[in-house]
Amino acid sequence: MPSATSTPAATVRARMAESVAAHEALLGGELPEQVAALAGLIAGSLRDGGKVILFGNGGSAADATHLAAELVGRFRFDRPPLAALSLTDNGSSVSAIGNDYAYEDVFARQLSGLGRPGDVAVGLTTSGGSANVVAGLHAARVGGMHTAAITGAAGGPAGAAAALALRMPASETARVQECSMVVGHTICELVELELFG
Q1: How far apart are CA 128 and CA 50, in angstroms?
Q2: Number of structural domains found in the chain
Q3: Which residues are bridge partners to 86 per DSSP?
Q4: What's the pLDDT at 148?
Q5: pLDDT of residue 67
Q6: In what order do the strands lie in the sheet with 164-167?
Q7: Within 13 Å and on the Cβ side, how many CA atoms surround 197?
Q8: pLDDT < 50 stretches in the chain
Q9: Distance between CA atoms of residues 17 and 95, nearest Å
Q10: Per-residue pLDDT tens for 138-192?
Q11: Is the Cα dihedral 136, 137, 142, 147 positive or negative?
Q12: Where residue 17 sits, what CATH number does that domain have?
């Protein structure tokens, strides 16, 4: 929170510095290897006729849709479309399941209906505590899917529910989402290279 004496320009510099620091922290620990592992899982699933199913709430829902679009459309070069979808893109399904069952079930029910063994389910949650993302990851594991969570530094229940937990080195929502998109774009690049490079 900017202090009463901060100028707008000082706030801009502070937020940019925070973002740069979070991005630099992506290089540490085992995260680069985990990103490469998730890209390999996705490429393998797609090669075998599987699909990528992404899901999250709010900004994470937008990130899920963004990454699905990069895979179905194209990322760095022209190539055939890849099978990917974001579970928040069907507003009728989300609202029907939320109304008739519970909002906690909006992803789990879709994964049970749309997912197949060998698919890759990726839950995005900055807090790691979104109950519907956790339930979705559990449903995906029961359905024989590979599971990954992209979370903030704490990981939370979503990190524990996924076979592969990619914890962004930040706790503030904006920084987590910024790091998540760098990771997501890198995964898209690696998948393209592995399948078509």
Answers
A1: 26
A2: 1
A3: 54
A4: 98
A5: 98
A6: 84-86, 52-56, 120-125, 146-151, 164-167
A7: 10
A8: none
A9: 39
A10: 999 999 999 999 999 999 999 999 999 999 999 999 999 999 999 999 999 999 9
A11: positive
A12: 3.40.50.10490
The amino acid sitting at 61 is A
With left for phi above 0 and alpha for psi between -120 and 50, is residue 145 left, alpha or beta?
beta
Domain that includes residue 58, residue range:
8-196
* pLDDT of amino acid 6: 87
- The answer to whether residues 162 and 94 touch, using CB atoms and an 8 Å cutoff, is no
Q: Using an 8 Å Cβ cutoff, are 166 and 155 in contact?
A: no
What is the number of other CB atoms lying within 10 angstroms of the CB of residue 46? 20
C-alpha closest to that of 123 among 95, 154, 165:
165
Quick check: is 2 in a domain? no
Residue 140 in any domain: the answer is yes
Residue 142 is which amino acid? V
Could you give phi then psi for residue 85, rounded to 5 degrees? -150, 155
Bridge partner residues of 150 (DSSP):
124, 166
- Whose CA is closest to 118, among 83, 92, 88, 150? 83
Report, in angstroms and rounded to the nearest whole number, the Rg of the chain calculated over CA atoms. Answer: 17
Contact between 147 and 121 (Cβ < 8 Å): yes
Question: For residue 5, what pLDDT is reported?
Answer: 63
Q: Is residue 97 part of a domain?
A: yes
Decide: 103 and 94 in contact? Cβ < 8 Å.
Answer: no
Residue 48's Cα: distance from chain center in Å? 21
Contact yes or no for 54/115 (Cβ under 8 A)? no
Q: Is residue 56 part of a domain?
A: yes
Residue type, 180: S
